[in-house]
């Protein structure tokens, strides 16, 4: 429904670095329950836009609305608490720590479910049960007790995804979910993102057009900080301006 209020909306969002516009007047609408891809040549402003959405950068001008509320200028922790979680491209895993302990730590964090200084055994059991559910969801349930350092690259990326899901986000931001992966892991990741996207809203950045075409309901193409084109994958890939932007890279 084009008339439904979007879950995420940006209005003329702009970020300048010393007068240079990395993101320029970007107005996005992401409908609840959809998968939305951000693509564009290097330097297009995708990372900067993600950093604005998560509060890691403050916009120079413009607005960000989430669930109809203005979240412009809020801090990263506040935004995470409101339900926007980001899965990072750069890993922040502890090699010696088990998978289930990673998940329990994320669940017990201030932005995770039910932060309490004092925890009853029942609460600890809930963390453990939820941790196991999340590991099962990303296909790592049978490795719960293993150290994160023992995982293959694709499995580490799946663990990072589970950690983002631990925040029970309404909106999941995925930063190049298939970066550095071989064909097999790419296809596994496509299936995994489809699965975790059920009942959630996802915005992702990826350079792999097979991934974009397989996952995205809507694609926004950025170039030089601006929206160059928007539509379905079929629409944007046949757009002359998009073809020119990529050929000119
Ligand atoms: P993408 O993720 O699409 O490759 P980025 O958002 O990383 O693009 O960068 C967009 C533009 O903004 C680039 O020209 C980049 O050099 C510039 N940029 C990004 N971050 C900064 C910063 N902290 N200071 C100055 N320029 C920046």
UniProtKB/TrEMBL annotation:
GO cellular component, one term: plasma membrane
Keyword terms: ATP-binding, Nucleotide-binding, Transport
Domain ABC transporter: residue ranges: 8-249
Annotated SMART domains: AAA
Family matches, as SUPFAM superfamilies: P-loop containing nucleoside triphosphate hydrolases
Pfam families, A to Z: ABC_tran, BCA_ABC_TP_C
Cross-referenced CDD domains: ABC_Mj1267_LivG_branched
Gene Ontology molecular-function annotations: ATP binding; ATP hydrolysis activity
Protein known as: Amino acid/amide ABC transporter ATP-binding protein 1, HAAT family
Organism: Pedococcus cremeus
Lineage, opening ranks: Bacteria, Bacillati, Actinomycetota, Actinomycetes, Micrococcales
